[in-house]
Amino acid sequence: MKHRVLVVGGGTGGICVAARLLRARPALDVAIVEPSEKHYYQPIWTLVGAGAASRESSVRDEAEVIPEGATWIQEAVSAFEPAHNAVVLSNGDRVEYDYLVVAAGIQLDWNAIPGLEESVGRDGVCSNYSYETVNSTWENLRNFRGGTAIFTQPNTPVKCGGAPQKIAYLAADYFRRNGLADKSRVIFASAGESIFSVEKYARTLHRVIQRYGIETRFQHNLVELRPERREAVFEHVETGERVTLVYDMIHVTPPQSAPDFIKESPLADAEGWVDVDPYTLQHVRYANIFALGDCSNLPTSKTGAAIRKQAPVLVENLLAAMDGVAPPARYDGYTSCPVVTGYGRLVLAEFDYEGKPRESFPFDQSEERYSMYVLKKYVLPEMYWAGMLRGLV
Question: In order of start, what are the domains of the chain with their CATH numbers?
Fold first, then answer.
């Protein structure tokens, strides 16, 4: 098997790129390697975990989102052979290509924290980070009668870096609305040094934390769960000191990394991510390979909004490479994080590689707004299914 363009990954990045390629050149031979039968709109899982949206609204059949004209290879990739312009599939087949796009997403390392994998979804342990576990967050919230609720963020990159704190705000708001605020201790324990990297938005989020009375513990990385005793063990990032906290419920954001088949490949940098130029999205060693999204080492937040800006740059530069032209388009690191700060409240953070706000609306987006909550809950999902995945926006 050989294809002109082979796309590894049928998630947001892969589908967006394939759709844009086929819109630009309808006769182009594009194949997508993706084993999953389902496609998920993951940003809505924050609201699902808070009981404000249904899990079922986040999923569609993968077959529905494969662009017309693309070939779907329903297998997983097990290895890359860039020296031979080929990939090896999990069934042993080899697929050759002229150009390769890697959009394989990010790997959830549930087993990196002892006690997590076997307890998530029960015994007070929950997580919004998978379709299988997201409903457990809402189950924990609505059955909560007081006590300690902990929300964690690991010392690894994660998809949607704001998601671990969003569910903490929604939980605190839920407790307040249901007369549980005085009976509850809400802790946000993050391995990071601060609540947000861009000061303009951080100022607002500090006020949100104060409003809810959330206890923050920065540079605290979750390293072990003892579910039988409902204990969470944290390690201070700098000192190595360990602290054990007892919880009634704990929302865990699992450690995440590049998929193993990328880490073990010639495409990876020292940290395991696909090694691309941060502006052109072209691989630094293989000129016929491009990557975008969560699996790449682009130094920006791993969000669908970032992919929306990366995809047109990648497509323009890939087509230029096919035509023997230097890459003309540049990605400036734009990303967006719609930080839900409560039911009906949202701060829409948008910024670039330099941490400078890159706001889309003619008002101060660091303020909590109902209109931006409506945008996240209703507008962005429709834009995703009807626009992004069809190569239109």
Answer: 2-106+258-333+385-390 (3.50.50.60), 108-255 (3.50.50.60)
Q: Report which residue type is found at 178.
A: N
Active site residue 337: yes
Please, which residues have CB within 8 angstroms of residue 374's CB and are 6 or more apart in sequence? none
CB 318 within 8 A of CB 289: no
What six digits make up the tokens of 139?
């189950």
Residue type, 59: V
CB neighbour list of residue 76: distance below 8 Å, 6 or more residues apart: 33, 35, 89, 90, 261
Q: How many CB atoms within 10 Å of residue 131?
A: 16
pLDDT over 70, % of the chain: 100
Nearest Cα neighbor of 106 from 306, 250, 266, 280 is 306
**Strand-pair category, 231-236 with 249-251:** unpaired
What's the predicted TM-score (pTM) here? 0.96
Catalytic residue, from 16, 126, 160, 295: name it.
160
Q: Are 281 and 155 in contact (CB under 8 A)?
A: no
Q: Is 295 an active-site residue?
A: no
Pairing of the two strands 184-190 and 147-153 = parallel
Contact 331, 51 (CB under 8 A): no
pLDDT in tens, 65-115: 999 999 999 999 999 999 999 999 999 999 999 999 999 999 999 999 999
Of the candidates 16, 126, 295, 337, the residue annotated as catalytic is 337
Q: Are 154 and 221 within 8 A, CB to CB? A: yes
